[in-house]
Amino acid sequence: MFNGAVEALKAAGHEVKTTDIYEDNFDPLTSRKNFKTVKNPDFLKPQAEESFASENDGFADDVRVEIEKLEWCDILIFQFPLSWFTVPAGLKGWLDRVLVMGRVYGYGNIYDTGKFKGKKGVLSFTTGGPQPAYVKGGFNGDIDAILRPLHRGIFEFLGMSVLKPNIVYAAAHGTDEERQQKLREWQTRVVALDAEQPIEVGIY
Length: 204
Prior knowledge:
The chain is of the alpha/beta class.
């Protein structure tokens, strides 16, 4: 799904910047290694250090590069397998290290006044269970409720509008042709995301 989207976007003339968390061996753990600057050497409070680093160009190179990609993009796509009803640990660590106070959010820059207002975000992911398991009253519950912390708590929190997620249910249990069809559908859709209208997420 990741490679197919990149290929389709480039073939359609879009500029693409990517991060493959596992291939790039991105370190997901937050520590002082996130920073070149130090505000308080005696106590690590990440938000305080992030704000200080934002003011003093003090982020470690791996964090700075990812922040610059966020600032550059028009549409942010997260591709992942749904893991324990959320993103996998590597992506969660990326969020923890890259979504920094000051440069990315904070000081009044959230939701409607977020720094990324005008950008769009979309989740593209696979699930272990079939679609009927992810509806209201279903075995795993409403997929919209499961995704709300990501849609509202990340995309909208940063000021982005949210596009309809791309979901491939029970990917490991389908046939090769079914998986190829889902891939083709995603490749067709991904090149035209800029024309899509946002979905309504809601606060609750």
